[in-house]
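Need residues for this backbone.
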């Protein structure tokens, strides 16, 4: 399918579904998080894409991109090749670029979110794919995967794919919501990979309120994992 045809198809589907989009940002967030399947979550993110930045894009309210980028500055060189997994509209990519990281690749399941990210011109490449299974990235082909806002929304099998595509000695920088880390299977998946000698925790940051003004009960920790 040509790019023009794909764009037309997406716009048509977006127009048909726009009336089901909840009216407030709290309702939209809840609606997306509680999608019953990955495919339904992708569809809802497509519909939410044009509202996403105004809903969670204030860096005074959504602190995760800035905090994750601070960690990246401590553990990565500025020429590191970084995959932003669950890139969404590019909030993390923008903060990384502002910090002078230049080699950025966006990956997301939602075409609609990636279309907004593409307009920001912060990524060298953008890929629509499901990271919970094998992707087209070669083994050990990137220096780091960074992922934010994904603990309850990206299948835990993604962690296995991160360990495959990051080179030995590279890192996974993961913004972890501790309760969701356990509930959605990441703790079990991490232990499997750790026992196999494929990944370990280098550091685990102090909890902070990821959405202090709108969702003050949500806490996040920035973990740095070493890939072996």
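Answer:
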């Amino acid at each position: 399918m040509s790019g023009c045809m794909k764009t037309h198809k997406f716009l048509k589907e977006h127009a048909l579904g726009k009336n089901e989009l909840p009216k407030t940002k709290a309702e939209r967030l809840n609606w997306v998080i509680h999608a019953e399947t990955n495919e339904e979550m992708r569809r809802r993110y497509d519909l939410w894409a044009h509202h996403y930045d105004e809903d969670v894009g204030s860096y005074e309210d959504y602190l995760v991109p800035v905090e994750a980028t601070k960690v990246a500055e401590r553990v990565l060189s500025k020429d590191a090749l970084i995959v932003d997994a669950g890139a969404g509209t590019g909030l993390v990519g923008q903060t990384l670029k502002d910090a002078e990281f230049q080699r950025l690749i966006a990956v997301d399941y939602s075409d609609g979110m990636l279309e907004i990210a593409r307009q920001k011109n912060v990524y060298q490449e953008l890929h629509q794919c499901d990271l919970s299974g094998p992707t087209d990235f070669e083994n050990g082909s990137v220096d780091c995967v960074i992922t934010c806002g994904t603990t309850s929304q990206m299948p835990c099998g993604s962690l296995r794919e991160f360990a495959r595509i990051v080179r030995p000695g590279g890192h996974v920088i993961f913004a972890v919501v501790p309760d969701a880390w356990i509930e959605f299977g990441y703790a079990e998946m991490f232990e499997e990979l750790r026992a196999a000698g494929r990944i370990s925790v280098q550091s685990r940051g102090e909890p902070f309120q990821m959405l202090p003004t709108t969702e003050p009960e949500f806490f996040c920790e920035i973990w740095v994992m070493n890939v072996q």
